[in-house]
Structures are given as structure tokens and as C-alpha cells.
Amino acid sequence: MNLLALGDVVGSIGCRFLRRHLPALKKLKGIDLVIANGENSADGNGLTPASAQYLFDSGVDVITSGNHSFRRRESYDLYDSCPALLRPANFPPAAPGTGYRVIDMGRIQVGVVNLIGVVYMESMESPFDAADRILKAGVPKITVVDFHAEATGEKRSLAYYLDGRVSAVFGTHTHVQTADECVLPGGTGYLSDLGMTGPVQSVLGVRPELVIRKMRTKMPVRFDVADGDCRTDGAVFSIDEKTGKTVSIERIQIL
After folding, report:
1. Which DSSP state fits 54?
2. pLDDT tens for residues 98-123?
3. Which of 47, 76, 163, 168 has its CA at a distance of 20 to 30 angstroms from the CA of residue 216?
4. Which residue is catalytic, options 21, 68, 173, 175?
């Protein structure tokens, strides 16, 4: 099967760009399942019911999230009611929603795990322990992990820890696509960061002058999404349905 994983979708401008290009990309690459990180899909950070529905209507099958999962209160109920919307599994148990789902595709089932890092980020349950907990309970042969984390060292460490136990580990959060795609010795596909879907002339999707002002003054600044031309970053993981192992990885960049 061919699984398309897309980096953080930023704002309504990123959502619109994705809608214009996703149908053709799915057809071109023979995509069976699309996973996109939507934690920044609403303007001003976070995710709303409207932005989530827009992504689903555009052809996304599963939405993952991260540290901005609960930035918008109007999304809380959606995490509980929508089976295809995930928040990191290592959030405290009282948080709305879940960090693991099984997607029934008819001929096969695909497990999707969402985890968040703890290096340079908020204190959460260890992603290693959270992954062990989920895998111990039983997962389908094809299971993938969106690891929303800052440090590449933490991302690669988790990937090696899960090598041979899951089909793929792909990173999100930094909005910058890395070029280290590989299949680890145990058959787990890996990429440190998928990148983002959002404005090209930006800093992580935000107007550059606003980020510069924040860094120079250390004062609060409203981070407005940039405008102009966009790009979509992601990767196609080709996974053997019999073994659950990744056969190949192709990075995707659409301008």
C-alpha cells in the first residue's frame, strides 16, 4: 500500500493549497491512505471543527496533531467524537480524544499512532513508554507513527526503538522537511520531518517580520499567517501489506 504523510498544514491558505493539489497527487502516486498533521490548520494556530472538516473534505483520511492540539476550545468535543482525529497519545489521560486509532480499509487495517516529544517541549509521558503501552495492547501489522517533536535526536532514537515493531515513523512540528529518509534495518521507514503545507515566504508559515520582532524584542507578538505562494511537503511510504515493512520512501514537494 502507498501511504501519503503530509507535514503541518498552516492556516486557511495552506488548507486551500492542499485542496487544489491533493486529488491529483493521490491519483499520480496511487495513494491508499492520507495522513496530515492539522494542528495549525486554523488561522492563528490550533484546529477548529471547520478546518478539520475542510481537510477531510479535501481528501485527508486521518488528521494528527501536536502541541497546539487544544489551542482552540471549540475543537475539544471533536477530539472525542471524530474517530479520524488524533491528539498525542502521551498527553494526560484526562485530555479529550485519543492518540491511537485503527483505520479499517476493507482489505487491510492500518494503525495510526500520534506521539509528542518531550525534548525542548512540555513535560509529558515518555513517548517511548506511551508507544510501548499502545504496542503491547496489540496493533495491526501496518502501523505508523506521527512523532510531533523538536529534536532530531529524539525522533531518530524513537524510530530505532520502534524499528521492526511499526511500519513507519515520520516527524512533524518543525515545518522544515529533512532529507534523511531511510528504511531502518528492521524494516521501519523513517523521516525526521515531513515539512509543512503553507506559505513559502514565511518562517514556519508565519509572516517573517513578526517572528523577527518576537526574537529581537522578546515581547508578545501576534503570529499572523503569511500570504503568497504556498508549498506542500510530505512523503509517500510504500509498505508491504504482507510483512508490514516499508519498502521505499519518496519525499514529496509541490510548489
Report:
1. H
2. 999 999 999 999 999 999 999 999 99
3. 47
4. 68
State the pTM of this model.
0.96
Unique residue bearing C-alpha cell 488548507: 15
Q: Give whole-number Cα distances, 10 to 4, 41, 66, 137, 233, in Å.
A: 18, 5, 13, 34, 12
Beta bridge partners of 231: 198
CATH of the domain at 93: 3.60.21.10
Residue with C-alpha cell 514565511?
202
97's grid cell:
480524544
Q: Return d(Cα 56, Cα 38) in angstroms, integer.
A: 10
CB 169 within 8 A of CB 155: yes
68 is annotated as an active-site residue = yes
Domain of residue 250: give its range: 2-254
What residue type is 46 in one-letter code?
G
Q: How many domains does the chain have?
A: 1
